């Protein structure tokens, strides 16, 4: 498990270099991906459902991204995009294509649907966390509270 967490950290750092994000934020994006992966592993351990685990991981990445964006005065996308890299269902997409090539269509359909469901869960988790955070910020602003 420690190895997975370290790899999630590194998997979130390398997109920072690829997307030319400010190098001062490199550690914070690594923590973002690590947080998302730890939440994913925890939820997956109890539910055995990669879709709900991906949603929970993406939701935590989104909340972390919004908080760090406020703290470091930068767009939240600079944290959320590298942060979701460890959650992306790359191996299931690969096995889907591999099963299509091997003409094993029933297994390809099953893997493909899981890939689409996980991708949708990631997108929905990021969207819901961003919307929730903005809604709470708006309420706090209306009541003159500060985050």
UniProtKB/TrEMBL annotation:
Domain of life: Bacteria
TM ranges: 6-21, 26-43, 49-67, 79-97, 117-136
Record localization: Cell membrane
Domain named Threonine/Serine exporter ThrE: residues: 4-131
Keyword set, alphabetical order: Cell inner membrane, Cell membrane, Membrane, Transmembrane, Transmembrane helix
Keyword presence, Transmembrane: yes
Membrane topology summary: Multi-pass membrane protein
Pfam families from the UniProt entry: ThrE_2
Gene Ontology biological-process entries: succinate transport
InterPro entries, per database record: ThrE_2 (IPR024528), ThrE_Dicarb/AminoAcid_Exp (IPR050539)
One term under GO cellular component: plasma membrane
Family: Belongs to the ThrE exporter (TC 2.A.79) family.
Protein name, per record: Threonine/serine exporter
